[in-house]
Amino acid sequence: MADWYVNISGSDSTGTGSSGAPYATPGKAGSVMAGGDRILIAPGTYTLTNTTANTAGGPLAPLAGSAGTPSQVIGYSAIIGDLDAVATFAGFPTLAAAVGAAGRPLQLTNAYCHARNLIVDGASQADRCVQVSGASVLLANVKVLGFTQFGVCVQTPTATVRRCWATAGHSGATAGFYTDSGEPLFGSCRASANPCHGFQCSGGRPFYEFSVSHANTGTSDGFVVLGANSALYRQCAARLNGRDGIRFDATNGADNSGAWGCVLTENVGTGLHSAVTTWADWDGDYNAYWNNGTNRTGLPAGAHDVTLTGDPFNGASSGDFSLNNTAGAGAACRAAGFPGALPGGSTTGYLDIGAAQHQDAGGGSTFAVSTHCPVSLPPWRASPY
Predict the structure, then answer these.
(1) Which of 28, 70, 99, 123 has most Cβ atoms within 10 angstroms of its Cβ?
(2) Phi, psi of 281 (to 5 degrees)
(3) Among the listed residues 243, 284, 279, the one whose alpha carbon sits nearest the alpha carbon of residue 262
C-alpha cells in the first residue's frame, strides 16, 4: 500500500509521486497506483488534456481495492484528511473536464474505491462528472457542477454517496444524482439550482436519507422515480422545485416505496405525488407540507402528517435547512415527533443539509434517527467518513 501525491506545482515527467516530488495530474498517479493505494491531491484545478483514463492529464479511474484496504482518492490541504468535516467546499481540489473533451473526470468503476474531499467540474462538456459502477464504492464530500447529463451517476447496488452536492447543471441535463440499479444509499446529499431533477431513480430501490433537493427549475422534481421502480425516503426535504417535491411517475412506481419524516414546501406542483393511484406496500407517515401547489396527490395521508402554517426552515434560501422554532412551522414538526439534528446541527462543522436538523436557542448537535421511520437501510450504509 503506497501514497501518491499530486500537486499543480508537480511534474508528470520528473516527479516520483512522493510528497517532495509530486505528480502534476491525478491521471498520472492513476497510471502508477496499485489496488489499495491512496492518491492524495492538493488544492488547485486539474483540467483534463485527454480522455484516456489513468494517463498523464487523463481522467482518474482508481484501481480496485479490497474490503479491508480500499483504493482511495483524497483531496487534502495542510493535513491529510483535514477536510472531512464539510462546512464549505472552499480549498478542495477540482478535477475538471476540458472544453471540447468528453471524458468523465472521476470514474469509480472498480470495486472498493473511495473518493472524498473533491470538486468535479464537467466544464460544460462531460456527460457525467462522476461515474460510480464499481461494487462497494464510497463517494463522500464531493461537489459536482457543470454536468450535461448526470452529476453523479450510480449504477451499482452497493454504493454509498454521502455529503455530496450537485449544482449548476447545464441546460438539457437530466439529474443531479441518478441511479438505475440495486439499493445504493444517498445520505445527507443536496441537489440545488439545476435545470433538471435533483435526484432521479430509473431502476432499483435506492435509499435517500437526510437529503435535500431545492430550487431545481423548469419541470423538474426534487426526487423522481421513473417506471415501475421504487425508492425509500427518510427525513428528506424538497423545496421550491419546478414541479413536484417527491414524484412517482408511472404505474406501480410507488409500490414497495415509502416516505417518512420528509418536509415538502413551496414546490410548484405537488409535495408528494404518485402519478397513478394504484400502489402496493406503500408506507409513509410523519411528513410535513407547506405552500405547495398541492400538498399530496395519489397517495394516502399518514396518520401523523402535518400541514404547516409557515416556513419551517431557518434559512432555506441560503442553504440552512434546520428546523426553526416557529409555532405552526418548525416547532410543529418537532411536536409531531420529528427527530434531532444531523451532526453539527448548524452551518458550521458540516455542510448544512438535511430536513430534520434543529437550530434553535438551545442549539442541536446530536445525531438522531426517528423511531417513526421504519425503513431498513442496506448493510453498507455505515461510512468511516
Answers:
(1) 28
(2) 60, 35
(3) 284
The span from the CA of 176 to the CA of 152, in Å, is: 6
What size, in residues, is the chain?
385
Task: Check if the beta carbon of residue 246 is closer than 8 Å to that of residue 269.
Answer: no
Q: 124 Cβ partners below 8 Å, 6+ apart?
A: 99, 146, 148, 170
More confident position, 62 or 237? 62
**Which residue, 60, 45, 49, 56, is CA-closest to 92?**
45
Q: Which three cell numbers stand for residue 225?
A: 422515480
Kindly report the three-state secondary structure assignment for every residue of the chain: CCEEEECCCCCCCCCCCCCCCCECCHHHHHHHCCCCCEEEECCCEEECCCCCCCCCCCCECCCCCCCCCCEEEEECCCCCCCCCCCCCCCCCCEEECCCCCCCCCEEECCCCEEEEEEEEECCCCCCEEEEECCCCCEEEEEEEECCCCEEEEECCCCCEEECCEEECCCCCCCEEEEECCCCCEEECCEEECCCCEEEEECCCCCEEECCEEECCCCCCCCEEECCCCCCEEECCEEECCCCCCEEECCCCCCCCCEEECCEEECCCCEEEEECCCCCCCCEEECCEEECCCEEEECCCCCCCCEECCCCCEEEHHHCEEEECCCCCCHHHHHHCCCCCECCCCCCCCCCCCCCCEECCCCCCCCECCCCCCCCCCCHHHCCCC
pLDDT band at 100 (very low <50, low <70, confident <90, very high): confident
Q: Looking at residues 302-310, what average pLDDT do you find?
A: 90
This prediction's pTM: 0.90
pLDDT of residue 175 exceeding 50: yes
Among the listed ranges 61-75, 130-144, 240-254, which one has the minimum average pLDDT value?
A: 240-254
Domain ranges of the chain: 149-381
In angstroms, the CA 67 to CA 9 distance is 33
**Exposure on the CB side of residue 43, measured as CA atoms within 13 A:** 10
What does the pLDDT average to over 8-21? 96
